[in-house]
Target: XRE family transcriptional regulator
Amino acid sequence: MRFIEEIVVDEFLPTFRSLLAERLRERDLTQSEVADILGISQSAVSKYAHGEVARNERVLDDERVAGLAEDLAEGLANDELTSVGALVESEILIRQLERDDLLSELHAAAMPGLNEYDGFDVHDPDSSLRAAERARSSVRRGIGTLEATSGFAGLIPNVGSNLVECVPDATDIDDVAGVPGRIFDVKGRTTVPGDPEFGVSGHVAGVLLAARDNGNDALAALNLAYDADLVDRLESLDFSTVAFDGERDTDEAIAAVDAADADALYHTGGFGVEANVYLLAPSAADAAARVRDLL
Model:
């Protein structure tokens, strides 16, 4: 795991400082004066001047980086800019480059898992990256709960179960994390084929999105094999259950019922359609925890 701050320290700063030191030396400042301005030792300035510090070619070739080094050197050499002012300008560029730009690209090269996110900003608490990783983490926790819950395998329908969670602004199944290939009962054992991914659940994700489109604020769903006693147990626990027509298009069927306050949606099946109960919950971890109350 590498933080973007490490990319700044290891790749950006040595390159940028060397550029700035070169530009200051070109303006006839002594090594001592350059060292004072940059807050580094004279020996470090000497290393920069003699090319003894490794520089990142992508940073070196970026016109914005080179342009800022030139502007700062001019202002610092002429006493038109203070060290604090130079720091502020440098920080502004760094933050810009961290937002889906040069530094974020270098970060993604060091952390390949970041490549699946477009326009990510690791510093943004409301970023899509953070929301997606939280959803995926919640599904993982939920899976762990289900695997540890004795009796859950008996609730898995023949078509398999899926535990899903969407990001808050989800619009389609690509915004919903779930289990690839579904969860199955293999000889009484809950079997999960892979790590949660986005866009792998069409059916359960579709039910969740349809419920949300009709006013439900759930972020997660889990499907179980339908049983009238299961619906009764849900209602005995004060969960609101709503039936819909499983033979109709999912969006149309859920739009035809009052799904806004439902804690569970269910249908009793039809020709070629297996009956299912869909638990709705604030998170995948919550949905899995509710299974324990049903057993």
